[in-house]
């Protein structure tokens, strides 16, 4: 037996690189057992994963949890956002899932934005200007490139929907993850029939949107899992919304997540609608909003540079004037899907450690710029009035601490880079798996009737060392901004992605001035 104070719940994080499962005591938040199993992501131009492998990874992660998982009374799944899972009439994947960081859908995305009224119209309609990451762009890519797969598709799911459905046998999603599809209207909180018609997508293929606090279903007969039949299953949500739950996040408290993706976000009571496309206007998993900016190149890009240099990821050295824009996978913030990595300012005396530091700086730069926009959309003490806005009013040292999470948050070089380029106090929660904890808090909320964010606050999940602010390194921030602004032609769409803006189109997020030039993001 687990000797827990309360019932046990299971929280799952099925993110890009792996699935993690935690068995958590719902009374105290104590992690009783944990497990993790990796995913395979295709390389080359495509970024695809087999949904069946997510299920195998979940099974393995739960097996590692041992006896405790057998006692679970409720479960919830958080998952990487946006991925397009296509299922046939038997519920089996038609093909591998197209992941959020697959930029092949950039031309389709650009066309969609223009065809339905341009960036401002989209921001007002769905809360976001779709990026190639959004599911609607992936569906458009599939229709163009694989009509046979489209013809065989009987259901469309997001990654967390897919796993939840394998648990319950019912097709469900939630407002948080639905808001990243591009076919969920933020103002009405319902699927947008106009977008669906334009995308050639039958609404009958989509899952039911479960309300916050509602039960999505119960676990069916699944001999491969430790759960007995009838265990409650919560709605689950996208991984960023799950981490917001897991931190018990309140408006005005910004989060920086360093994983495969870099994300920066805050909870907001106001519905965001950023026509520049920098800030996605996601819904959170409770009933509020989650303005968020996301980069494609974060921990993996920095680790790749370290590997190329033959250095440990912590072997950074200060100084040096080199700038490295680590856009190894193309980039989303700024919206440069065809970009590749760019190095500028190399000298004879530049050391490998300085180049590695330049990769960290280049990866953190856009996220920290976007932080100001995210908080402009938010409300509370960390918002525009008390901010770390570069060049803006207010001393960042007095702003709300930046909560640093994700795999990279454990790294000293990441922590120091974020402190130096933000000038803010930085808090690093001791709890490692905030996405899985958020899912666990959602599952616990089903049992107790509590708000999942209140559950997480009761558990004290955000507790961790508070790192004092250091003076912001304005020189580096300005140097990166200048290189980004000047590098426009080199960072534009690559030959494999083709199409530029449609003739006669208005500004699109990919065609506007670079962030460094505007000082906006
Ligand atoms: N101690 C560490 N220092 C720096 N980076 C780390 C450390 N531990 C893990 N990472 C990075 O964390 C990443 C995985 O983070 P995670 O948030 O689990 O990713 P995802 O949710 O995208 O699957 C890896 O790419 C790895 O580079
Ligand atoms: O696309 C986004 C957010 O819009 C990404 O944040 C994905 O949700 C993947 O997250 P990780 O696997 O990097 O945690």
Could you explain how this protein is built, in words?
- Helices cover 33% and strands 18% of the residues.
- Mean pLDDT is 92; it is low at 378-392 and 494-521.
- A hairpin with a 3-residue loop joins strand 16 (255-258) and strand 17 (262-265).
- The protein is an alpha/beta fold and 521 residues long.
- The protein binds adenosine-5'-diphosphate and 5-O-phosphono-D-xylulose (5SP).
- 5-O-phosphono-D-xylulose binds at residues 15-16, 80-82, 100, 133, 180, 238-240, 259-261, 263, 280, 294.
- It catalyses: D-xylulose + ATP = D-xylulose 5-phosphate + ADP + H(+).
- Substrate binds at residues 81-82.
Topology of this protein?
Layout: E1 8-14, E2 18-25, E3 31-38, E4 48-49, H1 51-64, H2 67-70, E5 72-79, E6 85-87, E7 97-98, H3 106-115, H4 119-126, H5 135-145, H6 147-152, E8 155-157, H7 159-168, E9 172-174, H8 175-178, E10 184-185, E11 190-191, H9 193-198, E12 208-210, E13 215-218, E14 232-234, E15 237-238, H10 239-246, E16 255-258, E17 262-265, E18 280-283, E19 289-295, H11 299-309, E20 323-325, E21 342-344, H12 352-377, E22 402-405, H13 412-422, E23 426-427, H14 434-448, H15 452-459, E24 466-467, H16 474-486, H17 488-491, H18 515-518
Helix pairs in contact: 3-5, 10-14, 11-12, 12-13, 14-15
Bound molecules: adenosine-5'-diphosphate and 5-O-phosphono-D-xylulose (5SP).
Residues 15-16, 80-82, 100, 133, 180, 238-240, 259-261, 263, 280, 294 line the site of 5-O-phosphono-D-xylulose (5SP).
Biased composition (Gly residues): 381-394
Domain Carbohydrate kinase FGGY N-terminal: 9-246
Family: Belongs to the FGGY kinase family.
């Amino acid at each position: 037996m687990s000797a827990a104070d309360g019932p046990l719940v299971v929280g799952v994080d099925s993110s890009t690189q792996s699935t993690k499962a935690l068995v958590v005591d719902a009374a105290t938040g104590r992690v009783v057992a944990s497990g993790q199993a990796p995913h395979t992501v295709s390389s080359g131009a495509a970024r695809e994963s087999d949904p069946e492998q997510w299920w195998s990874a979940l099974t393995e992660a739960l097996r590692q949890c041992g006896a405790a998982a057998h006692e679970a009374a409720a479960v919830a799944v958080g998952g990487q956002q946006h991925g397009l899972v296509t299922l046939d009439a038997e519920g089996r994947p038609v093909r591998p899932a197209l992941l959020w960081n697959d930029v092949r859908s950039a031309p389709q995305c650009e066309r969609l934005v223009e065809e339905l009224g341009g960036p401002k119209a989209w921001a007002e309609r769905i809360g976001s200007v779709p990026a190639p990451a959004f599911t609607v762009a992936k569906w458009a890519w599939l229709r163009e490139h694989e009509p046979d797969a489209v013809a065989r598709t009987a259901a469309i799911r997001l990654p967390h929907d897919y796993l939840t459905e394998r648990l319950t046998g019912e097709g469900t999603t939630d407002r948080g993850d639905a808001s990243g599809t591009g076919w969920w209207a933020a103002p009405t909180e319902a699927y947008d029939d106009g977008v669906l018609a334009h995308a050639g997508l039958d609404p009958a293929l989509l899952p039911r949107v479960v309300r916050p606090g509602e039960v999505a279903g119960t676990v069916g007969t699944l001999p491969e899992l430790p759960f007995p039949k009838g265990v409650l299953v919560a709605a689950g949500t996208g991984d960023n919304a799950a981490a917001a739950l897991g931190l018990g996040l309140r408006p005005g408290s910004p989060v920086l997540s360093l994983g495969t993706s870099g994300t920066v976000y805050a909870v907001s009571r106001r519905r965001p609608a950023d026509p520049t496309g920098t800030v996605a206007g996601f819904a959170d998993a409770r009933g509020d909003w989650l303005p968020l900016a996301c980069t494609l190149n974060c921990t993996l890009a920095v680790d790749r540079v370290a590997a190329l240099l033959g250095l440990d990821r912590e072997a950074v050295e200060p100084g040096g004037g080199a700038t490295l824009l680590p856009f190894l996978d193309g980039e989303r913030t700024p919206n440069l899907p065809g970009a590749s990595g760019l190095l500028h300012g190399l000298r004879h005396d530049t050391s490998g450690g300085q180049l590695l530091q330049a990769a960290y700086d280049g990866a953190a730069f856009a996220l920290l710029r976007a932080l100001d926009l995210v908080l402009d959309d938010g409300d509370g003490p960390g918002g525009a009035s008390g901010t770390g806005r570069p060049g803006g009013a207010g001393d960042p040292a007095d702003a709300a601490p930046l909560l640093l999470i994700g795999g990279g948050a454990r790294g000293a070089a990441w922590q120091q880079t974020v402190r130096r380029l933000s000038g803010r106090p930085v808090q690093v929660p001791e709890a490692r798996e905030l996405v899985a904890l958020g899912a666990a808090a959602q599952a616990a909320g089903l049992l107790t009737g509590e708000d999942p964010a209140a559950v997480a606050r009761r558990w004290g999940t955000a507790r961790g060392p508070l790192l004092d602010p250091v003076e912001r390194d304005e020189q580096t921030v300005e140097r990166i901004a200048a290189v980004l602004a000047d590098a426009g032609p080199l960072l534009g769409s690559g030959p494999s992605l083709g199409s530029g803006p449609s003739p006669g189109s208005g500004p699109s997020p990919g065609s506007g001035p670079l962030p460094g030039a505007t000082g906006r993001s």
